[in-house]
Design goal:
CATH architecture of the largest domain: Alpha-Beta Barrel
Shape: globular
Radius of gyration: 24 Å
Number of helices: 16
Distance between the termini: 40 Å
Number of strands: 19
Largest sheet: 8 strands, parallel, barrel
Structural class: alpha/beta
Strand content: 15-25%
CATH superfamily of the largest domain: Glycosidases
CATH topology of the largest domain: TIM Barrel
Helix content: 25-40%
Bound molecules: ligand TNX
Number of domains: 2
Length: 553
């Protein structure tokens, strides 16, 4: 499909484990004396409690991502018709999170669940700015007969704690109509905080366009697994998806099509703001990407003057890569980049702006380096931190730049070393190895959707790697986090997005969140299997991968 990738080998049947053998996971469970961090012993039973049945609450620690620490014990808490959600008076953020939780719980429990001031039993949501244990995104959840209390230093931690609470309740809680219950939460304490600050999913809205509603649906799914970034790939050869006032034809003309010749589309500024607002209500930061200087056919087709020869190419609806380039020597090119970055930065409250930089096969190396120097300076001028695909390290990453590694097992040693050397020199890395975390890679030879240029990526393969040890020579501290990109050459709607993202996305989310000590495929696959009924209750069209022991309910 991608000519530049035609020579890549597809390797099958890879099951090797990279780190954290099962023995280590089991030892941890044994030595932790009642503290279960993984939550499932090899037999699939919950550590520290009996097997999960419909009659007993789901054991603490049986969530995805695995919590840093879970100490089961004491009586469970039961949500009843009399339960109140209690938030501190005057805390707007806690109240919003309380309302959000009530929105999840009310339809299925059928209870009123008023969100009221603090004091008394119930579900208590507390932001305590002095809570030094939890960090920016961590939380503590305590459950006993009288109450479930989630305490966090900040609202993001409180929100993540609420996701844990959701997962401790029966899967039926996710349904939209009244269900039977009982609504029990196991007794004990969860203390939790993320391993990495950057836990991202990317959606390619260029190859196929997705509506605001489809993006929101994905955001809700990411939130359940404690992801905190949504990277939107807003431009590519096949479509420009964001309105830019100073260059209106980018969207109105360049957004008019997509792979296969469909109608495409674009986000108005208000649409984009609505996505940003919705993401931030789920504690996700939007990272917008304008891919430069390659992957720009839609822009070049919209404005003839952006082309070196002054001639606009036709719109493109195929799936080749690497054939387009902005005109590096032209001054107008940098007016264009400046305008786009300025308008996009103004719409984006988040810290980052992604400028692509991948597969610039039609740009000479010198031109590439010169272009990326100028583009990075423009991003800095508008107050954003630049992210680029890892090819950026072949140029001169500015101080503070982030490189996103998307290599795979066939990536040459020299290219890996270039990225690792940049990391040694201070460039932070987001890891999205194509043969591990690319959600558009087929699971196996029978997968209908997706591509296979980086090989098949089974559920185990997408989970079973260690970000800290992944790239030889890159210091551990240089790893900002992980991303699961979803390229959409073959994907046209939410059903298809979900078929590829689930169940691999929760594994990448867990790599980003859970401590390395919890890493164990045999335990993970049981916890993941328990997500099946929850995903079904949510109407998520997940792939029932045979590697996973899917729970019946
Ligand atoms: C490579 S990953 C690309 C994309 C394709 C993707 C398909 C990257 C930075 N570039 O242009 O959509 O492969 O898997």
């Amino acid at each position: 499909m991608n000519p530049s990738k035609g020579t890549r080998l597809v390797r099958l049947h890879r099951t090797q484990r990279t780190a954290f053998p099962r023995l280590l996971g089991s030892l941890l469970l044994v030595t932790a004396a009642g503290i279960s961090s993984v939550g499932a012993a090899p037999g699939g039973q919950a550590a520290g409690s009996g097997p999960a049945t419909a009659a007993s609450p789901r054991p603490l620690g049986q969530t995805v991502p695995a919590p840093a620490e879970a100490k089961p014990g004491g009586s469970p808490y039961t949500i009843t018709a009399g339960t109140r959600i209690r938030v501190e008076d005057g805390s707007r953020e806690a109240r919003k999170i309380g309302d959000y939780l009530a929105g999840v719980l009310r339809p299925s429990t059928g209870y009123a669940l008023p969100v009221t001031g603090r004091g008394g039993d119930g579900i208590r949501l507390r932001i305590d700015s002095h809570d030094s244990a939890s960090g920016a995104e961590g939380y503590t959840l305590k459950s006993n007969r009288g109450s479930v209390t989630i305490t966090a230093r900040g609202p993001a931690g409180l929100f993540h704690g609420v996701q844990t609470l959701r997962q401790l309740l029966p899967a039926d809680v996710e349904k939209n109509s009244r269900q039977k219950g009982p609504w029990e939460v196991a007794g004990g304490t969860v203390k939790d905080a993320p391993r990495y600050a950057y836990r991202s999913a990317m959606l390619d809205v260029s190859r196929h366009f997705f509506s605001v509603a489809e993006v929101k649906r994905y955001i809700d799914q990411l939130a359940l697994y404690k992801m905190n970034k949504l990277h939107l790939h807003l431009s590519d050869d096949q479509g420009w998806r964001i309105a830019i006032d100073s260059w209106p034809r980018l969207a109105t003309y360049g957004g008019q099509t997509e792979v296969g010749g469909g109608a495409g589309g674009y986000y108005t500024k208000n649409d984009y703001k609505e996505i940003v607002r919705y993401a931030s209500s789920r504690y996700l930061e939007v990272v917008p990407e304008i891919d430069l200087p390659g992957h720009t056919n839609a822009a070049l087709a919209s404005y003839a003057e952006l082309n070196c020869n002054g001639v606009a190419p036709p719109l493109y609806t195929g799936t080749n890569v690497g054939f387009s380039s902005l005109c590096v020597p032209k001054a107008l090119t940098y007016d264009f980049v400046d305008d786009v970055v300025r308008e996009l930065a103004a719409l984006t409250p988040g810290k980052y702006l992604h400028i692509g930089g991948d597969e610039a096969h039609s740009t000479s190396h010198e031109d590439y380096v010169a272009f990326m120097d100028k583009a990075q300076a423009i991003v800095g001028k508008y107050g954003k931190t630049v992210i680029g695909w890892h090819q950026l390290t072949g140029g001169t990453p500015v101080k503070g730049a982030v490189a996103q590694y998307w290599g795979y097992d066939q990536t040459g040693a020299a290219e890996r070393k270039q990225v690792a050397d940049a990391a040694v020199n201070g460039t932070k890395l987001v890891l999205s190895p194509a043969d591990r975390s690319y959600l558009d890679m087929k699971y196996d030879k029978d997968t209908k959707l997706g591509l296979a240029w980086a090989g098949y990526v089974s559920v185990q393969r997408s989970y079973d790697w260690n970000p800290a040890a992944y790239l030889d020579g890159a210091p551990e501290g240089s790893i900002l986090g992980v991303e699961a990109p979803l390229w959409s050459e073959t994907l046209t709607n939410s059903d298809e997005i979900e078929q590829m993202a689930f169940p691999r996305l929760p594994g990448v989310a867990e790599l980003g969140w859970s401590p390395a000590s919890t890493h164990d495929w045999d335990a993970y696959k049981v916890r993941l299997g328990a997500q099946g009924p929850r995903l079904s209750a949510l109407g998520v069209n997940y792939y029932r991968a045979p590697q996973v022991p899917w729970a019946a309910q």
